[in-house]
Fold this protein.
Amino acid sequence: MTITLLSLITLGGVGLVFAVLLAVLSKKLAVQVDPKVTEILNVLPGVNCGACGQPGCAAYAQMIAEKKSLFCRCIPGGDAVSKKIEKILGITASQNAKEKLIPVCRCGSTNKEKKRSFIYSGPLSCKSAHISGGLIDCAYGCLGLGDCVNVCPVNALSVTNGKISVNRKLCISCGKCVSACPRQLYKMIPVKDGIDTYVVSCNNQDSGPDTRKVCSRGCIACGLCAGVEQSPYMVKNNVSSIDYDKLTSSKPLADAKAKCPPKCIDKIL
Amino acid sequence: MKELILIFISAVITNNLVLCYFLGICPFLGVSAKTDSAVGMGIAVVFVMTLANALCWLIYHLALVPLNITFLSYVLFILVIASLVQIVEMVVRKFSPPLYRALGIFLPLITVNCAILGAALLMVTLKYDFLESVVYGFSGGVGFLFIITVMASIREELEYMDMPKPFKGAAITLVITGLLSLIFMGFAGLISA
């Protein structure tokens, strides 16, 4: 009898002490959370992409609520989200949203087009393959193992036959793929209204004949694209590229694509 | 002093809670996918296990033993550990936001971690005094931290390997745990009494 009573008292007593302690502490140590932070957090897309420079949406909401300024705005959310946040904070610092940037991979060759003179059997990641010299003969080209696909928070990238494609509807321009590529093949390019998006899908900076040896689709720096009327193309370091600031219409872009001998200019859908 | 060092080495290497007593396997499998989170979890365990062992020793020897109701230790230790974790979480959140950001998400996970309860019960079984119990709690936590970090490093490397489908995920993790356990059994003769 006494043992039952004793155990009941002990257990109940210890439980009570902790219950009181927890109740008191939860009041005393309550951390004030700014209601605006939760409000902003509800407006944000919640993909935690990190494009704003903060570790996640929660950290970004905390920061802008404290500083009452948008800093680098939320890129995935775009203008709509920025406006809502400004409403919550009661500020009007809105500038017009920048044009949308999408990443493009500057190598568009498929497995058939890239030459391989040895078999790679190491870890299946671009970083590892790049350290050992790569699994293709081209020292600049896409390794096709998909490090960029793995870091994409919204699954906008995919690899088919060793060629990367970007789904620009899904892309939120966070730029993680740019830093994931060990060969720095990604470049953020602006998408302009009314003008089709083209890209030179090659980054091989060796001379034309050398490029030919390692890839049947590489840019041979012939300069035909730079020769078309009002051409935005320029050849530098043995590789062609597009100056997106010079664009006024899609015509010179399409003309150059038709003329390109190795067909290394791609239109992005 | 020599005793304490022996307790430390034994809890970290020869009688590791995870590899020899198979305690705390769930967080060990769940949080060992990335080294960063594994280290965070490990440090949280060190923190809580040390405090829990100190408090449990006090309650056991100041309340349960004099009243002769030691059979209550299981229930009472769970109660103590759960409340302690809650209190620690609140205190850390209030006074050290950076620490809370690092450990915060792991603390609630530890509430029902069997390794913590195991360490508290083992300290009773092994008849440690107060200081020894605290050191045992600390070194048990360090042992967990050590093993979960080793495991996370191995798993990060495994990510890149071309593994047969049936082995992927939890399966290969358990196989590796078994191998690690075998390896650590090899240390059994390290300390001779």
